[in-house]
Design a protein that fits this description.
The protein is of the alpha/beta class and 530 residues long. It contains 21 helices and nine strands. GO terms for molecular function: glycerophosphodiester phosphodiesterase activity.
């Protein structure tokens, strides 16, 4: 009697494939997967995925390069909300999560393509992908040229190698290597024409190392070799000029504890005795605005805990002892202030009492310039050269986003000194160095001090020179070297054809002595061609 056994179908477990298709398209079962060609819609979604990845890449690059303006960004948030917090942290965290997520989807999609699996992106991924694109699509434009430059350089080397191995010229190669000539940058220049290193001005001292606008901050800046000190000046209720950036005292003092009912009032509506009684350093230790408190010594921490608000006279006396210059940004008091009409004279009196030379003090307000003819004059407004000369102004103070290379060159040609602010990153300092800017104002003099040479000048010259060097090196090869070096990269049929061409060329030149032993493995014999 024949006994029939039931047939069992055994499937090999494909855990890795199940993971790929499950995460990408929520297809965890074997029957849900397919090797059919992907639909046009799914191919379109893959293109959108690639575009979203590129946008997020530029968005991440944008925020990395925007590190120069983190402090200004946080300060603007403080003025709107009234609370000091680092607003860049959630943005950077969200960017990191979004970029990692889209990158992971890109890897899964490429794995699907390499394994021949049908693309079928899950609808939740599609929604998140579209939202990500909408968020960043308006913020990546300014940096597209940088990605294009990197792509042109990388692609140029690949095409160059292919063209040389193929033994033929190509117009594409010429276009790729001529493309950098169309890119404008102040750092594409001859090294010999590089201007002297820009002087660094300590903007509110060295606010990343000590509380801004305090004597400790100015001392830290002087230790970093700054050429000048920049400060924000307000006038107290009893006519004493003191240093304060904000309109109120809430952010940089403990006024909420000492005068809780008056913490939202204008800083200039307090007399000097009240202002002097406030602590101006504890906030820095508690909030750690630049994440630098951890690197402070115990001695510096103790000094910070006892800092007070600095007067203008104290700051100028320190500047005079160090043989440095001072740049003053004055804040006019409100109309109800008793010194509303005499605030300039109060400031000039403080300058005289400090003993500093008037030639070492730079004046920024546009009002009553006729009273301060003895001081150096600068304008915070971007005016024409004719207007600046008419007002008796010989220098210009511009935000870096307003200072194009053309404008800088025009002002310098007309003997107008240019100071650019804020400059906290080495790359920006390098670009301005190449532009010939005489001085920059920085919150991070300790960072700029470590820049020995313009970064972009070195990078771009080295990349372009390396490309030309490779091309010149390839042109020095003779045909035999090029053909022989390409043998190991060619398929067998192409290799045989190249060998035959090489043998025929040697025969035509009359070389018959040792060439019969060139390629014994393929059985070539020159004698058979004679």
């Amino acid at each position: 009697m024949v006994k029939h056994q039931p047939l069992q179908q055994v499937y090999e477990k494909q855990l890795c494939l199940s993971f790929l298709t499950g995460i990408y398209g929520c297809r965890w079962k074997r029957y849900q997967r397919s090797h059919d060609n992907s639909s046009k819609w799914e191919c379109a979604w893959f293109i959108i995925l690639c575009s979203t990845f590129s946008l997020l890449l530029f968005w991440a690059y944008f925020w990395l390069e925007a590190h120069n303006d983190y402090n200004q960004f946080n300060w603007l948030l403080y003025n709107r909300s009234g609370e000091w917090k680092d607003g860049t942290v959630p943005i950077l965290a969200t960017t990191a999560v979004g970029f990692s997520y889209i990158t992971f989807l890109m890897i899964l999609a490429l794995c699907h393509i390499s394994l021949g699996q049908q693309l079928n992106l899950y609808w939740i991924h599609k929604v998140i992908k579209l939202l990500s694109s909408c968020v960043v699509i308006q913020s990546t434009g300014p940096f597209l040229h940088i990605g294009a430059l990197a792509a042109v350089t990388a692609l140029g080397w690949l095409v160059a190698g292919h063209v040389i191995r193929a033994g033929r010229t190509s117009n594409v190669l010429l276009v790729l290597y001529m493309a950098p000539l169309a890119i404008t940058s102040p750092c594409i220049m001859d090294r010999n024409s590089l201007k002297p290193r820009p002087d660094v001005i300590g903007r509110r001292g060295a606010p990343m190392l000590a509380p801004e606008n305090t004597l400790m901050s100015f001392n830290k800046a002087l230790q970093q070799g700054v050429s000048s000190l920049e400060a924000d000046v307000s006038v107290s209720l009893d006519g004493v000029p003191f240093l304060m950036r904000d309109r109120t005292l809430r952010r940089t003092t403990n006024i909420a504890k000492v005068f809780p009912d008056k913490q939202h009032e204008d800083a200039s509506l307090f007399n000097w005795t009240e202002i002097r009684s406030l602590n101006a350093g504890q906030w820095f230790l508690e909030s750690d605005p630049y994440w630098t408190v951890g690197s402070l010594t115990g001695r510096d921490r103790n000094r910070m805990g006892n800092l007070t608000v600095c007067s203008l006279v104290e700051m100028l006396r320190l500047t005079a002892r160090a043989n440095r210059s001072a740049l003053l940004n004055l804040h006019r008091p409100p109309p109800e202030h008793p010194h509303y009409k005499t605030w300039i004279m109060d400031t000039l009196w403080a300058v005289q009492r400090s003993g500093i030379s008037q030639k070492r003090v730079t004046w920024t307000p546009d009002t009553d310039r006729g009273r301060v003819r003895g001081l150096q004059q600068t304008s915070l407004e971007k005016l024409s050269v004719e207007e600046l000369r008419h007002r008796g102004i010989s220098s210009l103070t511009l935000r870096y986003s307003q200072a194009s290379n053309k404008d800088i060159q025009d002002f310098l040609v007309n003997n107008m000194s240019v100071m650019v602010y804020p400059v906290n990153e080495p790359w920006l300092y390098s670009v301005l160095w190449c532009s010939g800017v005489p001085s920059v104002s920085s919150d991070a003099p300790q960072v700029l001090r470590k820049v020995p040479y313009p970064i972009w000048l070195m990078v771009r010259i080295s990349v372009y020179t390396s490309s030309l060097w490779r091309m010149s090196g390839m042109q020095n090869y003779n045909p035999e070297q090029i053909m022989l070096s390409a043998v190991t990269r060619r398929p067998s049929r192409d290799v045989n054809i190249m060998k035959e061409k090489l043998i025929f060329s040697e025969v035509s030149n009359g070389v018959t002595n040792t060439d019969e032993h060139l390629y014994p493995e393929n059985g070539y014999d020159i004698g058979q061609y004679k």
